[in-house]
Structures are given as structure tokens and as C-alpha cells.
Amino acid sequence: MGLRQSPAILFALLMMSATLSGCFGNDEVEQVVEITTPLDGLFTSTSWYHYSGAVNASNDTIGYDNLTGNSTPYPVSGTYYGIGDTTFEPTIGVTSTGGIHYASFGGAGRGSMVYTSMDQGQTWTNMGPFNPVLPDIGQVPSSNDPYIYVDKWTDRIVKFDMHALTAMFVEYSDDDGQTWSIPFTAEGYYTPQDHQSIASMPDVDGQGTYDTIFVFCINTGSSALGPQCSRSLNGGLTWDIQRPGYPIGTAQCSGLHGHLAGSVDGAIYRGNPSCDGPAVYRSLDGGYSWTEHTITTNVPMQEGWHSHEVAVAADDAGNLFASWISLDDMPWMAYSRDQGDTWSEPMMVAPPGVNETGFPTIFAGAEGRVVVGYIGEGDDNGGWSGYMSVMTDAFAENPLITTVAVNSPDDPLDITDDCGNVRCGGFGDFIDVEFDDEGRPWIALAHNTNGEIGIVGTFITGPALFGELRQLPELSPGGPSTL
Questions:
Q1: Is the peptide bond before 73 cis (omega within 30 degrees of 0)?
Q2: Which among 182, 221, 267, 443 counts the fewest CB atoms within 10 Å?
Q3: CA–CA separation, 397 vs 65, rounded Å?
Q4: For residue 369, which of 267, 298, 472, 273 has the smallest C-alpha distance?
Q5: Superfamily of chain region 43-482
Q6: What is the per-residue burial (b if ≥16 Cβ within 10 Å, else e) of 341-366?
Q7: Which residue has the higher pLDDT, 294 or 379?
Q8: Does 26 score more than 70 pLDDT?
Q9: 367 burial class (0-12, 13-18, 19+ CB within 10 angstroms)?
Q10: For residue 222, how far is the Cα from the chain centroid?
């Protein structure tokens, strides 16, 4: 019986008994037919199928009729691959050629580097960019916060480094890191220049000379000043003067923000708490002016380290998703189908058995398909794992959530008691997640117990998050042997 052929119904065959005669005489023989469900055989020690609020989907609380169409359960398993160098605040970008690009910390004097895999994480190469005079160090010899972003409309890789909290440098590559531009200085008038994030969106109004508009925002260190943002209309060569990344005249209660996200409709978003709760700020004019959109006042932000991180993403149809850690130390998500004007009821997306999380990140692919990434610790406090919670139909009345851990319980990424509420090892302010064109998710993490090595987690197999909803082909398992 194939799971794909009949995913929508409960395959309940009742226990039958019959009194047989003839050669069996009057003996009564009970014939038992096994009861099966669409979820049989799918649960493992690192994969879960559940609904919002950590409701186990096999409990039939909602009904197996829900597991149909785009909420069909698919077998899933996770793994990770080491990039071969250290990380701090890991970020990742994926090009349409299949290139996976990871920003490595490098350290003072050496500069941050980009590690690239062209074979789905199996091998990694240091792509620099290297100083042409001193080839063993980077073009930007020191980076406090290495950051990488791939423009998903042009495949331009943008490497964005912060130096000594005072300046930002931008380098880019259009050939998977084979060659790089010189470092361009981004405009900056406030100190500190910190917690940078960058994204792009199509230039739908023809404002610039490049196909997309790049926008970066930084933290000023002041709630009163709030985040400041700048845009580039020529692919990152020059940048506008920094302007407030929020409606001028609106009170701000936090200067920090999560990763920016651009949308196919020309909107760009950044997540940031408003004074009322988790919020998304929207720009429809290339990052020049912004509006404020509070998501909820009922599920507030965590009061600890992640009180500032609201992660945002836009799917192929322009729908908007946001995720944050709330007072219960758990990851929540909500969506908007009107550019942030109105929002769904928030959903807690972690699986049963996880009781503390941190470092929320999010990415979206085909319409309604989204992944929320985070680190989490289970009921036994046995260490931290990297999780991806996937919805293949986020807009369903009761969307199925498929969650996978990329590391096994005996291979924790960190053993710090409160890693979800503090900086610990390679986990600085954030992690990152993205999809490749096949629809496979890739999450950038740190393996702190093995020396803060950068790792990339993914599906060995699972549902495709771009294109036709299907089972992804299997990859070779990774794990500790790749560190």
C-alpha cells in the first residue's frame, strides 16, 4: 500500500472474527488485519509530524482526512555537513546553479571568507575573496559580523562585512565566487554600525540601473534612532544616505532587527518589534520609506536575548511570513496575504518534546511552503539541536508541520544550559536558512561542541519546497565525520 496513493484517508480495517468449520471443526479463529494510517512508519528520533501547539498528528485529534493534498505527509530525514572552518552568526546563500555559499568568520587579521559547495554540501572550497597583494587574507582583513546574501533574481552573491562597528564593506560575485568585485564602502553616518542585514527585490518601477534594488539596514544601538537603512540602485556599487527604516515620527522601542526579505512584487520587509509586539516594517519604494505593521499583541516577544529577532520571508506569490521567539521560549509563526496589513493567528511550530528554542530564521518557496529554522533543547536537557519545521500548506485550516533535527541526540551542537537565550559559540545574533532550486532547505548552523565549526543542515530526503510537491531524491548522510 503506497502512502502517496492514498494519503487523505484513515486506512482503518476493522478486526474481524469468523467461525470456521470443516477441517477446523468448531474452533473459532480470530483473523486480525493490521490498522494503518498515513503516518505509519514516518516518525523517528529526529523527525516529527504535528500540528500547531506541538499536537502530535498521529493522535487523530484533527483527523486523518486533513492529511491530503498539499498537507500530505512525506518521509523526512535530516543531516549536516561541515564546511571546514569556523563560523560566527552563520549566513548562507544559494544560487540557481546549485552553489551553496556560506560566510565563515576567519578571525581578526585574516578576514571573513566564503566557503562554497557545488555538490550539495559534499565538498567545500574557500572562495575568498582574497587580497590580490596578500593572497592569504581577505580583501576586507577584519570583519566583526560576516554576512552573505544571494540575490535570487540575478544570482549575484553579496558579501557584506562590518568593521569595528564603524563601517560597512560590500563585495559581490556573479560567478559563484570565482571572481569578486573590489570592496565598496556603504554609506554610514551613525555609530555603531552593527547587526547588518541585506536583501533585494525586483526593480518593478525602473528606478535604477540594475535589475534589482539592494537594501541594507543596520542597528544604531539606540531605540530612539531605530534601525537605519540604505539602498543601492546599481547593484551595490554605490549607496544612498542612511535613512530611518521605520515611519518617521513613529516611536521606536527596539533598534535591532532580523534578516531583511524581498518579495517578487517589489516590496521589501524587515522584522523588528514595534512598541506593541512583534512587527514587520514594509517598504514599497525600494527602502526609501517604511510603514509599521504589528503582527500580534497576544504572543509577545521573548524578554531575553531574542527579544529583537523577528525573522521574515516572502514566498513566490508574494505572501509574507514572520517568526519570533515568545515568552514561552518557543518559536511562533504568522502569515499575511496582503503585504502585512493583516495577519493570521500565530502558530507555535516546534514539535512535541522541545521545550526551549532560540535563533529563529525563516524562508519561503512555492506558495504556502515555508520553513522555520531554530535551535532547540528537549525535555531531557541533553543538549541543543538544529531544527527545521516545514509547512507544505501553511494556509490550510490545520496545516501539517513536518519537523526534522539535522543532528542526532548523541551529537549535540551545544551543551550550554541556556544557549537559546544567550550568545553561545558560533551562535552570535542569528542563523540562516534558504532553499535551493530543487526545493531542498539548507540551514546554516554552528557545531560549538566541535570548535564552533560551520555546518549546513539539510534533508537527506523530504518534501520539495519549490515546484511540484514531491519526494526529494536522497543525499548521502553527513554528520560528525564531515567536521
A1: no
A2: 182
A3: 12
A4: 472
A5: YVTN repeat-like/Quinoprotein amine dehydrogenase (2.130.10.10)
A6: eebeebbbbbbbebbbbbbbbbbbbb
A7: 294
A8: no
A9: middle
A10: 27
Query: In angstroms, rounded to a whole number, what is the distance separating the alpha carbons of residues 405 and 387?
Result: 5
Residues 6+ apart with CB under 8 A from 37: 10, 11, 12, 58, 60, 64
Q: Over the stretch 425-463, which tens digit does the pLDDT of each residue have?
A: 999 889 999 999 999 999 999 999 999 999 999 999 999
pLDDT band at 162 (very low <50, low <70, confident <90, very high): confident
189-203, 250-264, 294-308, 467-481 — which one is most confidently predicted on average? 467-481
| Mean local confidence (pLDDT), 3-11 | 35
Q: How far apart are CA 104 and CA 148, in angstroms?
A: 9
Length of the chain: 483
Residue type, 398: N
pLDDT digits (tens, 9 = 90+) for 290-342: 999 999 999 999 988 778 789 999 999 999 999 999 999 999 999 999 999 99
Residues of the chain with pLDDT > 90, as a percent, come to 69
Residue with cell 571573513: 112
3-state per-residue secondary structure call for the chain: CCCCCCCCCCCCCCCEEEECCHHHCCCEEEECCCCCCCCCCCCECCEEEEECCCEEHHHCCCCHHHCCHHHCCCCCEEEEEEEEEECCCCCEEECCCCCEEEEECCCCCCCCEEEEECCCCCCCEECCCECCCCCCCECCCCCCCCEEEECCCCCCEEEEEEECCCEEEEEEECCCCCCCCCCEEECCCCCCCEEEEEEEEECCCCCCCCCEEEEEEEECCCCCCCCEEEEECCCCCCCCCCEECCCCCCCCCCCCCCCCEECCCCCEEEECCCCCCCEEEEECCCCCCCEEEECCCCCCECCCCCCCCEEEEECCCCCEEEEEEECCCCEEEEEECCCCCCCCCCEECCCCCEEEEEEEEEEECCCCCEEEEEEEEECCCCCEEEEEEEECCCCCCCCCEEEEECCCCCCCCECCCCHHHCCECCECCCCEEEECCCCCEEEEEEEHHHCCEEEEEEEEECECCCCCCCECCCCCCCCHHHC
Using alpha carbons, select from 362, 313, 340, 95 the residue that is nearest to residue 199.
Answer: 313
Q: Of 404, 407, 403, which Cα lies nearest the Cα of 448?
A: 407
CB 444 within 8 A of CB 461: no
Query: Please, which pLDDT band fits residue 34 given cuts at 50, 70 and 90?
Result: low
Q: How confident is the model at residue 236 (pLDDT cuts 50, 70, 90)?
A: very high
Strands 184-186 and 194-202: unpaired
